[in-house]
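The protein record filed here.
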Amino acid sequence: MYRNDVEYLDWLQSISHLLRNMDIQANKFAGQLLVPSFQLEEKFNEGVSRLRDSDVFGSDGLCVIMRELARYFNVSGETVKIRLLNDGLVGEVDIE
């Protein structure tokens, strides 16, 4: 089947890369299914508006909103973070 070990290792590496890409795509699809963009933006903007009238600012306020979104959509905080980044509602600097 394979002429040598190098050929076999190349094949394994290709399969591994393919599986990683499939996993990434599956996670992205699941995130979009569980946290639809239109609802995410609406709920995020509601949270921002609510916090404008409070004494919570900056990254603390963003953390509050993210926890609320995670509870609302019943997903992990990491899922919310990725969706907010992918939809351009926050930047990488905002979350760090």
